[in-house]
């Protein structure tokens, strides 16, 4: 998929972030840095990647570094992003997959302030902190060369996590829907800030994907099963790998003229 260089992935200890990390490693990244709150999850994904790379037929070593980081913490984010760039020598791809979801029983009128703040802090402000720290580093590094045809690619690529709920709304999702609409706005404005200087900044918008986020909570599971049956043209949930494929496309040389966009990977949900 033409992803030489080094990737940093938040939320890398679970679900879609985990699938992204494994796909970058498999498709040719020289190193991946995984950031998450969940230390055990990080160590498990690191071990999975190392096992995967050993089992690949060709020589495919990929350095894996893990960092326990709360993306809401500005200082931790700045320090860790700088450390990753120092460790790898550069920072080519940043995937902002850390996120939390919350259903507010009774809808917006009954949503708790704490829930609103937590979801906005992780999904939107956390994405901003990581984007800002990464862009400052990327703007000062030379462009990466394609591993396929040697042409100059970008100075750096950032993929933010929107959602179908970045474009539409469903009930009981006040904070999450607002946060994901915000991520698309952040993506659009930041992409324009740096398009001419060689940064590409895009969003990926998953539909209903089978991960711990969607399978652990009974209310979420129930709402989702109804939506999948009635509103997803493909009538199934997606897999984390199907989202990772979109992320690696948006990161690699095959999307070298793509910036400021949102790629919906949703089984057709938003065509309706
Ligand atoms: N699963 C879906 O159906 C779906 C749909 C649309 C968008 N998304 C988005 O995809 C992204 C990944 O979600 P997922 O389904 O893999 O969820 P997940 O719960 O499996 O993984 C999310 C990861 O983010 C980490 N995280 C949470 N808060 C954090 C914080 N403050 N700092 C650092 N890490 C933190 C968690 O520890 C977890 O490992 C999220 O942004 C989510 O909103 C998911």
Task: Using brief descriptors, characterize the structure shown.
single chain; 272 residues; alpha/beta; Rossmann fold; 8 helices; 7 strands; binds nicotinamide-adenine-dinucleotide
Describe the structure.
The chain has one domain (6-210, 239-265): Rossmann fold (3-Layer(aba) Sandwich). It is globular, with a radius of gyration of 18 Å. It has a seven-stranded parallel β-sheet with strand order 3-2-1-4-5-6-7, with helices on both faces. It has 272 residues and is an alpha/beta fold. Helix 1 (15-26) runs parallel beside helix 2 (39-55), helix 3 runs parallel beside helix 4 (113-138) and helix 4 packs parallel to helix 5. The model has no long low-confidence stretch (mean pLDDT 96). It contains eight helices and seven strands, in the order βαβαβαβαβαβαααβ. The protein binds nicotinamide-adenine-dinucleotide.
Topology of this structure?
Elements (H helix, E strand, L loop, with lengths): L5 E5 L4 H12 L4 E6 L2 H17 L7 E6 L5 H15 L4 E4 L16 H26 L17 E6 L12 H21 L4 E8 L5 H4 L2 H14 L8 H12 L10 E4 L7
Parallel strand pairs: 1-2, 1-4, 2-3, 4-5, 5-6, 6-7
Helix pairs in contact: 1-2, 1-8, 3-4, 4-5
Bound molecules: nicotinamide-adenine-dinucleotide.
């Amino acid at each position: 998929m033409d992803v030489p260089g080094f990737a940093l992935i938040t939320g890398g200890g679970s679900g879609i972030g985990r699938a992204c990390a494994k796909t970058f490693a498999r498709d040719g990244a020289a190193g991946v840095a995984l950031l998450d709150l969940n230390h055990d999850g990080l160590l498990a994904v690191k071990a999975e990647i190392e096992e995967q790379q050993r089992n690949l037929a060709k020589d495919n070593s990929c350095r894996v570094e893990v960092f326990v980081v709360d993306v809401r913490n500005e200082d931790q984010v700045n320090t860790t992003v700088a450390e990753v760039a120092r460790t790898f020598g550069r920072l080519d791809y940043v995937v902002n997959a850390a996120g939390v979801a919350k259903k507010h029983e009774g809808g917006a009128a009954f949503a708790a302030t704490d829930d609103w703040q937590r979801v906005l802090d992780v999904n939107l402000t956390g994405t901003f902190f990581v984007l800002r720290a990464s862009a400052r580093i990327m703007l000062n590094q030379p462009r990466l060369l394609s591993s396929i045809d040697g042409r100059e690619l970008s100075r750096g690529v950032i993929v933010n996590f929107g959602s179908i709920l970045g474009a539409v709304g469903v009930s009981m999702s006040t904070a999450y829907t607002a946060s994901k609409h915000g991520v698309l706005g952040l993506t659009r404005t930041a992409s324009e800030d740096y398009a001419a200087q060689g940064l590409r900044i895009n969003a990926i918008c998953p539909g209903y994907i089978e991960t711990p986020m969607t399978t652990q909570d009974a209310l979420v599971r129930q709402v989702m099963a109804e939506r999948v049956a009635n509103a997803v043209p493909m009538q199934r949930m997606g897999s984390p790998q199907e989202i990772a494929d979109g992320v690696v496309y948006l990161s690699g040389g095959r999307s070298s003229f793509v910036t400021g966009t949102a790629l919906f990977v949703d089984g057709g949900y938003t065509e309706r």
